[in-house]
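Can you give me the bound-state structure? Components:
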Amino acid sequence: MTLRADTPPTTAKVRRFSTAQRWVHRTTAALMGVCVATAACLYVPQLAELVGRRDLLVTVHQWSGLALPVPVLAALASRAFRADLGRLNRFGPHDRTWLRAALHRDKRPASRPAAKFNAGQKLYAAWIAGATLVMLATGLMMWFTHLTPLLWRTSATFVHDWLALTIGIVLAGHIGMALADPESRRGMRTGKVSRDWADREHPLWRP
Amino acid sequence: MNEDVHQGVNDEHPEERGTPIGRRVFLGTLALGAAGVVAAPPLQRGLERFLGGAADKDPTGLTGLLPNGGGFRYYSVASSVPRKNAGTYRLTVDGLVERPVNYTIDELRAMPQTRMVRDVQCVTGWRVPDTPFEGVRLSRLLDAARLRPTARAVRFTCFDGTYTESLTLDQARRADVLVALRMQDKDLGHSHGGPVRLYVAPMYFYKSAKWLSGITVTDEVRPGYWEERGYDVDAWVGRSNGRDDDPTS
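Here's the bound-state model for the whole set.
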């Protein structure tokens, strides 16, 4: 993107996400939110006691879980989304530098080189995608109890429970980091971020 | 800035080359999930032992929130459940009987009490070992009501307004089926189905209806709440619902 001469550089905006990408994030976040909320009401005794309605909660949880991968699958039709998947997949030497700095709690921008996505975002994207599919598979094994041998169902419950706890913690980290960075949230909300922010947080990104 | 970054051809973005580590993390997570399912039985046993021990020393009760943390889980199918106490609670026995009865808690307490210590096994997998239940044998209440010859089954209703359960007459007459007033040597609390619940020791715990308010003798088994939603009517622990848990009674 070339800046127009009459635009002061401090307020310049660069496009970060397309409309399709923002809607994928919105719908996935909403479905994940429903999954987490219903799971909490099914699982945490105090909430279960407060809410009851177990049959309804189970149905809502099952269908929102089943729908969870749909926005991402649908977005594969979008060229911009596929391009970002490619960016999330590929790790360069700068990602190693970024991860090393993150491990040493080195917050200086110079030691955190990143292209459109930093190494932490890449790891999160790959892990949450895998974890969601594991939740879906183990969830289906618990839902359609006659499809798999009986021992599998107890094992699926075990994995589903512990992975749910892990996802809850990681998701809280994801939301916490977004809350700490208003410009990053603006990028996901409006699709655009300031040139300053992009240069500081994603110096290797060439929008 | 990192010198690694600018290696290679100038017009190539750093994000368009590199190792496909994202794909490896994604596939690795899937593989780990599958391995978790395979390794679950020993892992689960170990964790139950460890967390069970930790829960005994944990004043915060947070271990109870962890999976396999041990203890009971609260399940209710109704939106809210009214609270009943000794003053407001009544247990009705009716249907195909000569003498329909209304019991108060005091009247139930005045009858001979039976105490049993068995494991509780839920159909969703959790098990609570060695749990004492105490109450009146169901067979005693049925005998007191004098069944008509056409009686074949018993239907249970609950004051949550929604839940129902059922047993055949033979099952209902077993010595290990109680109308329970106490659990873990305490009066049954509301969240455990108090003041009075059913306790069917040899069956999965969904048969042990909480907040029991009605016992109706019928001429055939009418499937209960969860049974209309796919659970087995004859819910013997280890021999139903596709599960192979150790029997509880």
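A couple of observations. Residues 16-65 of chain B form one domain. The radius of gyration of chain B is 26 Å.
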